[in-house]
Design a protein that fits this description.
The chain is mainly beta and about 350 residues long. It is built from five helices and 16 strands. It is elongated and about 90 Å long. It starts with 6 loop residues before the first helix and ends with a strand.
Length: about 350
């Protein structure tokens, strides 16, 4: 499975991942608890740097902003796979959205992070002095066995939008500007299993989206728009309760993501450009930015900035089927995402 073939390097990476990707340790638990839920969903979104809170218009919309519309169509499905850390970990997601009517939708998202073949060692023998001086009691690096880490999260979202007409200017000579106001709420369940220990908890997210659509005439997708979005994650400070002897609890701190985005279609060449910028506050801070160029509603090229790393990608859509790819740089290794989606 792994591309890191030296057993000692493989062992070190596996142990590091077990510490980084789980919330069992109490060290800064509020910052790193359920860290896998912040990895992001969707190759399209990640190729645009994860700047999605004011865009949120594909099948993964409710993950980024519960108020996200999910785009065109009645049904939208999306599946994703990404190997991480040179194959030591695997990240998968599945998203489904159903439009109950043109202004109301429900969504179900699932994400999983798995780390296999984490080595298990027995307690060291002798004293630290003996191990340093004579070598007695040192481990030969051979593990007693192996265990795994499995982390799952399920998101269930209700979203509702409405169209308001904003009049700019006087009653007679004023200009009518259609404005879409959307809100959404997400209930989520998180479950983690590290060896024989399990932790679980429930959380709540909420989002708002305000989209200005000049010239809109009730088309499925406005030709141009400017939007403002905000999403609050873990409103009630989600707690993960572990079945340890101490009944340890990890608390996930609240997070706020706010952003602005714009999209414009140049009809003569059938080109749409969409760009967004997000700012993260509270539990996680930082900036995200990204842009997308789509030609003839078929081919898209994307780029962005995510956690101080460059991102890039491309997408192809034909007859409702979409295939997206994203590249994300990182200090612990680059990652490649592939997402398949369908909407009807």
């Amino acid at each position: 499975m792994a591309m890191i073939t030296h057993p000692r390097w493989r062992t070190g990476w596996a142990l590091l991942l077990a510490l980084l990707l789980t919330g069992v340790t109490s060290l800064r638990a509020g910052e790193y608890a359920a860290e896998f839920t912040r990895i992001g969903v969707g190759a399209r979104a990640m190729a645009m740097g994860g700047a999605q809170v004011a865009i949120a218009n594909d099948a993964s919309a409710s993950y980024w902003n519960p108020a996200g519309s999910g785009g065109r169509g009645t049904v939208a499905l999306q599946f994703e796979h990404m190997p991480m850390f040179e194959g030591l970990a695997h990240y998968n997601s599945a998203c489904a959205r159903l439009a109950l009517n043109p202004r109301t939708s429900v969504s179900l998202n699932w994400i999983r992070l798995g780390v296999d073949d984490i080595p298990r060692y027995d307690a060291l023998l002798g004293s630290r002095f003996d191990r340093y001086t004579t070598g007695a009691g040192r481990s030969d690096g051979t593990p007693l066995g192996w265990f795994s880490d499995k982390e799952d999260a399920i998101f269930m979202t209700f979203q509702r939008s409405m169209i308001l007409d904003m009049t700019i200017g006087g009653d007679l000579a004023g200009t009518v500007l259609p404005v879409e106001f959307a809100f959404g709420v997400t209930g989520k369940y998180i479950h983690q299993k590290l060896d024989s220990y399990t932790g679980s908890g429930q959380g709540l997210d909420a989002g708002l989206l305000l989209r200005f659509m000049p010239g809109w005439q009730d088309q499925p997708e406005p030709q141009q728009w400017i939007s403002l979005g905000a999403a609050v994650h873990d409103l009630a400070r989600t707690q993960l309760s572990w079945n340890t002897a101490s009944d340890h609890k990890d608390e996930i701190g609240r997070g706020l993501q706010a952003g602005i985005a714009a999209s414009y279609t140049w009809s003569p060449l059938h080109v749409r450009m969409t760009a967004g910028y997000d700012r993260l506050f509270w539990n996680e801070t930082g900036n995200r930015a990204g842009a997308e160029l789509t030609f003839f509603n078929i081919l898209s090229v994307r780029g962005g900035w995510y956690r101080e790393e460059l991102t890039a990608g491309a997408g192809l859509e034909l007859a409702g089927f979409c295939l997206d790819y994203a590249f994300i740089g990182g200090d612990l290794g680059n990652s490649h995402r592939i997402t398949g989606a369908f909407r009807l």
